[in-house]
TrEMBL record:
SUPFAM superfamilies: (Trans)glycosidases
UniProt enzyme class: hydrolase
Name listed for the protein in its UniProt record: beta-N-acetylhexosaminidase
UniProt xrefs under InterPro entries: GH, Glyco_hydro_20_cat, HEXDC-like
Keyword Hydrolase: yes
Gene Ontology biological process terms from the UniProt entry: carbohydrate metabolic process
Reaction catalysis annotation: Hydrolysis of terminal non-reducing N-acetyl-D-hexosamine residues in N-acetyl-beta-D-hexosaminides
Top-level division of the source organism's lineage: Eukaryota
Pfam families xrefs: Glyco_hydro_20
Length: 499
């Protein structure tokens, strides 16, 4: 084991430079255009080669597709401005459009319900349905044409991860498999991915197609060649574990991929991979994940004719279209900076920390320890959102950990006391004062969240965040205050039994 650690550290010390692309996930907390641009500026200063933009329902779609658009979707002028700004700060833009799984944003609607693999689930396209091809052709063309009109488009990402509903369920799939002369659903999937790649490359032949590696990791290399996927696609291998990536991405998997493909990309994370309900960022697991990825690059790049060319540092805003918001970009900018540095060098030095601190507008006294602990006071764009989230999370935890309050609740403010307004006025007066204090402060924090979020996000982001993460806390306090006031106002109580 010691020898292996020394080998890995030696590899890190000889690490080759790798292109880094920051992922912008717009299915949660899509930023206002101005904040989008300021974020791109920070990505560039932190060493990003480009940005992968997962537009989902925020793209300014036209025609039948517009019926599935977000109510706050960007205008065409907004997108042009974002792409032009990316050019200005020397970022290559990679559009990402899901073309297999993770299609909830469109398949959830009644109009597109017939395109589902399984009529009960909104996750996956029925890939044998000719109407699916027509819709994807329209969708891909709209996105690609607008991108290519503004900025070079060397890459286009077609998703294809986590197709949770197995293909071969809709009638059109079964018909397609019969035409292909197979009962192997993988053949159906490869036929679909080749079709999707051709939809883009027939119009933009110089554009290389990226796809998450889920459908390729155990594939037969000859079958991939038979479907021209070795020529048309580049697999993006993703894994977000903070340790033991070699367990999840074994040498045999890399060998299998390199037999079919001349190159690959990687996929690490800087946020949004530490729990679907996690709203504050713990930096260390992400730094560890990117350090593990540095090791993977050095161990396996040599297997490919053109090495592993790049890594997408992902930052999910939701786990999927239906989950709540998780770690937002302003809570995670320090995590991104440290993760990018770890991915580049395999470690972060005090000199690196000084450079990061300058880019993130941190006080001169900021140390590497401060950055890793996430207790910095850096004033990068959007830091107020970070601070307001930290404040409310800390305050709610303070309440949860307040043993004295909970002892009183358990003893004198249980369900009977609340329902029958039957308890000791003496203890209620003490508890009432605490509830009032927490309620007042929490409402002040909610106002700060609305103001700070509103500066960089559309108004629905703050509303959703509060509704999911905070309102249950203040509603509990409000109900408690009301019930305690009724108890305190009573001059007498009935004799038992109460039931």
């Amino acid at each position: 084991m010691t020898r292996r650690i020394h080998l890995l550290m030696a590899l890190i010390s000889l690490a080759l430079a790798v292109d880094k692309y920051v992922h912008m996930d717009l299915k949660g907390a899509p930023p206002r255009p101005d904040y989008f641009k300021k974020s791109l500026d920070l990505f560039s200063k932190l060493g990003a080669k480009g940005v992968v933009i997962e537009w989902e329902d925020m793209f300014p779609l036209t025609g039948i597709l517009s019926s599935a658009s977000h109510g706050n979707a960007y205008s065409k002028a907004d997108v042009i401005g974002i792409l032009e700004y990316a050019n200005r700060v020397n970022l290559t833009v990679v559009p990402l459009v899901q073309t297999f799984g993770h299609a909830e944003w469109i398949l959830k609607t009644a109009l597109f319900e017939p395109l589902r693999e399984n009529e009960n689930y909104t996750n996956v396209f029925c890939i044998g349905n000719p109407a699916t091809k027509d819709i994807l052709s329209d969708l891909l063309s709209q996105v690609a044409q607008l991108h290519a009109a503004v900025t070079p488009m060397p890459f286009f990402h077609i998703g294809a991860d986590e197709a949770l509903i197995k293909p071969g369920q809709c009638p059109e799939d079964l018909e397609m498999m019969e035409e292909l002369g197979t009962n192997d659903t993988k053949i159906l999937v490869y036929h679909h991915l080749r079709t999707v790649a051709k939809l883009i490359q027939d119009e933009f032949p110089e554009t290389k197609i990226l796809a998450w590696f889920d459908e390729f990791k155990n594939a037969d290399a000859q079958t991939l060649r038979d479907f021209e996927l070795d020529q048309r696609l580049t697999p993006v291998v993703w894994k977000y574990n903070p340790s033991d990536l070699e367990t999840y991405l074994p040498d045999s998997m890399w060998g299998n991929l390199s037999e079919a493909f001349s190159t690959a990309w990687g996929g690490s994370a800087f946020k949004g991979a530490n729990g679907a309900a996690k709203i504050d960022n713990d930096i260390v697991p992400y730094m560890s994940n990117n350090q593990q990825w540095r090791i993977q690059l050095d161990l396996h790049s040599g297997k490919f004719n053109r090495s592993i060319e790049a890594v997408i540092v992902t930052g999910w805003q939701r786990y999927d279209h239906f989950t709540g918001l998780c770690e937002l970009l302003p809570t995670s900018m320090t995590s991104l900076a440290l993760s990018m540095d770890m991915l580049e060098n395999g470690n972060v030095t005090t000199e690196d920390a000084t450079s990061i601190s300058s880019i993130l507008s941190c006080p001169n006294s900021t140390t590497l320890v401060n950055l890793i602990a996430g207790n910095d006071t850096c004033k990068y764009e959007g830091y107020q959102v970070r601070d307001s989230i930290k404040e409310i999370v800390k305050y709610m935890k303070n309440f949860d950990d307040y043993t004295w309050i909970h002892n009183l609740e358990n003893g004198w403010f249980g369900k009977t006391a609340q329902d029958r307004h039957y308890s000791s006025r003496y203890y209620m007066e003490s508890l009432y004062g605490q509830y009032k204090k927490y309620f007042k402060n929490a409402n002040r924090m909610k106002k700060d969240i609305i103001n700070n979020f509103g500066a960089i996000y559309f108004s629905d982001t703050a509303s959703e965040f509060l509704f999911d993460r905070v309102d249950s806390f203040t509603e509990k306090l409000s109900r408690g205050i009301e019930d305690m006031a009724r108890i305190i106002g009573r001059r007498s109580f009935p004799v038992r039994p109460l039931f």
